[in-house]
Amino acid sequence: MPTVGVKRDLLFKALGKTYTDDEFQKLCFAYGLELDEVTTEKQMITKEQGEVDAAKDASEEIIYRIDIPANRYDLLCLEGLVLGLQVFLGKISYPKFMKVEPMKGAVQKLVITEATKQIRPFAVAAVLRDISFTKDSYNSFIDLQDKLHQNICRKRALVAIGTHDLDTLKGPFTFDAKPPKAIKFIPLNQEKEMTADELMEFYSTHAQLKAYLPIIRDSPVYPVIYDSNGVVLSLPPIINGDHSKIKLETKNVFIECTATDLTKANIVLDTLVCMFSVHCAKPFTVESCDVVNPSGETVQYPELAFRDETISVEKVNALIGIKSSPVEMAKILNRLLPTSQSVLDKDQLKVVVPPTRHDMMHVCDIYEDVAIAYGYNQIPKTLPGTMHIARQYPLNKLTEQLREQIAQAGFTEGLTFTLCSRDDISTKLNHKIEEISAVHIANPKTLEFQVVRTTLISGLLKTLAANRKMPLPLKLFEVSDVVLADSRAEVGARNERRICAVNCNKTAGFEVVHGLLDRVMQLLEVPWDKENGYYLRAADDPAYFPGRCASIVYKGADIGRIGVLHPTVLHAFEITTPCSVVEFNMELFV
User: Fold this and answer.
1) What span, in angstroms and rounded, lies between the C-alpha atoms of 133 and 253?
2) SS3 label, residue 147
3) What are the DSSP calls for 33-71, one per residue?
4) Which residue from 5, 129, 185, 210 lies 20 to 30 Å from 107 (Cα-Cα)?
């Protein structure tokens, strides 16, 4: 869930009212948001860096950090938050966002070449004309782009936003794809001209931009936008050119969004222009642009589409559990969406979905807004129409029962990480990683969390190693899930609930874990029998001492291992005393 930080005084000034922290928290809750934290820039820097000196020059102005639903892109900036809350409080009606033609000159044009299909095939554009920036609105403009990039744009992989000072450029614009050596310009906030290759090398150590380089680095061509004079506007999705950078004095902003997903690009463009058209000389107006596709087709953007939906008051009442008349429901829903009562059918309400509400994909989303506008706390509590007695999931019930019994047998329960390193499940246990059906993490952050565990033994041995100074014997157990790669499973992997116990003492104490196994089987009423029960069968496993390992067989199926661990395994986990282990699958006993 994204978190947006807004200055309290600026927010209250825009809302036209001052609230206490509690009052504003209640307002946020009523609107479906959550006031996460009341802080200052100084406190945030101190908390992040842990040093008071680092924040000595930071502002102490109060900042509200508000949690925003992930699909409400229109609330990711101060302008959108203020607009939404003012409509919710009934101070203003929902604005009508309009596309307009330029007062002077022709409509700006963006031409997409055929070459872009190799790397980033879509682009949309718009112009915010006669906009007035303050320092705060300028920062909000930049911050909204960052929030969109991290959220719906999927870290610029799907959409990359470029904003430019239109007065420094000359249309029409061209979106092309060229070899890296053929692209040369001065990047944003730099003084030296670079080729695209040099730029990639230059930003390979940049704290923020290095994360975006792999998106296009290995491509034979890079996407680039330039104007009719050959001035480079941007190298999406990496960086804009310095020539057309936005300043506080900028009056006309050209916005381009290049994308691999046209739908997402439209959502991003609509959100950006709707939120900041409020700062234009004519509020809520956006100058459209013509985008010429490689096929020659010309499409006008932004779409700014208003969509009509019809809902039944009777159905909404039944689904939410309220009794509201059509007039009342239209009144409360107007706090979130423009709504009017149908002339032909009094039970029907006509709801207009504005271009800022791309989260409205179905009438069910409108039903949710009715519930929010009505107030969740105002919905009467009722007993469900049907009665059903819940019961615990059988596997979890058996797990809890066995945990208690194993603890009563003198073992201490451990709770270890589900993720571990590749070595923990392979090399340290004398196995090869290629032979193990493990689920690997695509981009592990640390060496400790590379795969999902396929055995509980590693975690318990690491726990033993961390508690070497404790008096012997150390008897640990864990009843938990492992994950195994399985091509037959719907998601390519399956969970398996296992019991694992380790006995660590001056002698291995195989009889201790054997006794625990017998006790568990006794509790499960499983006899020692080769046909209808369980028994041990000699086995070879490199993780165990030769000749001191056995398979646990239940009704002919191998369900686990029991034995004395190999000295090399103990050495790999930095354990100096002998250990015996039992591990088996318990799901067959449910």
Assistant:
1) 11
2) helix
3) -EEEEEEEHHHHHHHHH--SGGGTTS---EEEEEE--TT
4) 185
Can you tell me whether residue 354 is helix, strand or coil?
Answer: coil
Identify whether the C-beta of residue 410 lies closer than 8 Å to the C-beta of residue 475: yes
pTM: 0.69
Q: Tell me how far apart the alpha carbons of residues 367 and 333 are, in angstroms, rounded to a whole number.
A: 9
Residue 53: exposure state from Cβ atoms within 10 A (0-12, 13-18, ≥19): exposed
Q: How distant, in Å, are the alpha carbons of 219, 440, 447, 450 from that of 443?
A: 21, 9, 10, 8
List of residues 6+ apart from 293 with CB closer than 8 A:
112, 299
Mean pLDDT of 309-323: 91
544-554 sheet: strands from edge to edge? 412-413, 474-485, 493-504, 579-585, 557-565, 544-554, 534-538
CA–CA gap between residue 289 and residue 447 (Å, rounded): 49
Can you tell me the distance from the alpha carbon of 276 to that of 199, in angstroms, rounded to the nearest whole number?
31
Whether 488 contacts 462, CB under 8 Å: no
Q: How confident is the model at residue 2 (pLDDT cuts 50, 70, 90)?
A: confident
Q: Determine if the peptide bond prior to 214 is cis (ω within 30°).
A: no
As beta bridge partners, residue 174 has 111, 226
Establish how many alpha carbons lie within 13 A of residue 348's alpha carbon, considering only the half-sphere containing its beta carbon.
8
Separation between Cα atoms, residue 218 and residue 216, nearest integer Å: 6
pLDDT at 241 over 70: yes
Question: Residue 451 — φ and ψ, nearest 5°?
Answer: -140, 165
49 pLDDT more than 90: no
pLDDT of residue 347: 84
Compute the distance between CA of residue 237 and CA of residue 254 in angstroms, rounded to an integer. 16
Backbone angles phi, psi at 412, to 5 degrees: -100, 130
Listed in sequence order, the residues at least 6 apart from 320 whose beta carbon sits closer than 8 Å to its beta carbon are 367, 370, 371, 374, 379
Confidence grade of residue 117 (pLDDT, cut at 50, 70, 90):
very high
Question: For residue 77, is it left (φ>0), alpha (ψ between -120 and 50) or beta?
Answer: beta
Q: Residue 47: pLDDT band by 50, 70, 90 thresholds?
A: low
Q: What is the C-alpha separation between 231 and 167, in angstroms, rounded?
A: 13
CB distance 83 to 95 below 8 Å: yes
State both tokens at 98: 């309009």
The alpha carbon of residue 221 and the mean position of all alpha carbons in its chain are separated, in whole angstroms, by 30
- 3-state class percentages of the chain: helix first, strand second, coil last, to nearest 5: 35, 25, 40
- Three-class SS state of 295: coil
Distance CA(497)–CA(583), nearest Å, equals: 11
Report which of 284, 191, 196, 282 is spatially closest to residue 232, judged by C-alpha positions.
196
Q: How many CB atoms lie within 10 A of CB 22?
A: 9
pLDDT above 90: residue 535:
yes
Contact 450, 422 (CB under 8 A): yes
Q: What is the mean pLDDT of the chain?
A: 90
